[in-house]
Specification:
The chain has 286 residues and is an all-alpha fold. It is built from nine helices and no strands.
Length: 286
């Protein structure tokens, strides 16, 4: 199989996974909740009207369909219109990276709206009794020390590798990469600690579901940190040897693996039909 066909299949996979397959699964989850947990029976789940959620879902679908069509158009253009895609390799090497960022925009917007949704739920929460967990929420109860050590080792190896490439004289490019990874890891740690020790984002969530969510968040951050660091090391390597075709490949695979460890893992671990929605029902009047 030629490198051209491999690149074509990988890029098609990026467009399909990020703009069709995963968004379709997200929409299925939303539809399940709207169908099986109607607003009049589960009022705590709806700090905003169900119609607004329908509108948000429609916008989310439309944005993903738009990116899917743009992606298909770009693939068609560079496959059938352009005589030789290698003549445009300086554009193509970064195109999967930039397009991948754009593909994540609908999910990012959905996450922001979800955060606002949970904030409204907390504001409307009238429960006066609180249930505390008997077991302390310790870090190693949610993520393996081995995975944490591996993430730290990968991060330190990345710093040494970048410094080695510039003869241990820190230049602008290496400083930007090291700074970006460091700030991203700090952000992961801050969000992870907020999930571990902070207040419940969902005031009605059972402790069992919350623990599963915390474990997912911490493990996802660790795996994403490891993969992000390895990706940047590979990116530096292909730039040194000017392997532009391989850069197209790893840029596309990066966002697919990123999606796998984030939205893919979320959809796989948290089956919507296994979640306890009874906590969102109206309180019984004594």
């Amino acid at each position: 199989m030629s490198m051209s066909i491999i690149l074509l299949l990988v890029v098609i996979s990026q467009v399909w996974l990020l703009s069709y397959f995963y968004p379709k699964q997200v929409v299925k989850r939303i539809n399940y909740v709207l169908t099986h947990c109607p607003e009049h029976d589960y009022p705590k789940l709806y700090p905003v009207p169900a119609k607004r959620i329908h509108t948000i879902k429609l916008v989310y679908q439309t944005m993903n369909y738009l990116f899917m069509m743009i992606g298909a158009g770009l693939i068609f253009y560079f496959t059938y219109i352009v005589p030789d895609y290698r003549a445009h390799i300086n554009i193509l090497d970064d195109l999967p990276l930039l397009f991948g960022i754009a593909q994540f925009i609908p999910l990012f917007i959905l996450e922001l709206l979800g955060y606002k949704h949970l904030k409204l739920m907390r504001q409307q929460n009238t429960q006066t009794n609180r249930t505390a967990e008997l077991q302390p929420r310790l870090l190693f109860n949610f993520v393996s020390p081995f995975y944490l050590a591996l993430a730290v080792l990968t991060y330190l190896s990345f710093i040494i590798y970048e410094l080695f490439l510039c003869n241990f004289i820190l230049n602008v490019d290496a400083a930007i990469k090291i700074g970006t990874v460091t700030l991203t890891n700090i952000m992961f740690i801050a969000i992870g600690m907020a999930n571990l020790y902070g207040k419940k984002r969902d005031p009605y969530q059972e402790n069992t579901d919350r623990n599963k969510q915390t474990k997912f968040v911490l493990e996802s951050f660790v795996f994403i940190s490891i993969f992000m660091t390895i990706y940047l090391m590979m990116h530096s390597w292909v730039n040194i040897y000017e392997l532009n075709i391989l850069e197209v490949l790893i840029n596309s695979l990066y966002f697919q693996v990123l999606a796998l460890f984030s939205i893919g893992a979320l959809l796989g671990r948290f089956k919507v039909n296994e979640l306890n929605f009874n906590v969102y029902k109206a309180d019984k009047i004594a």
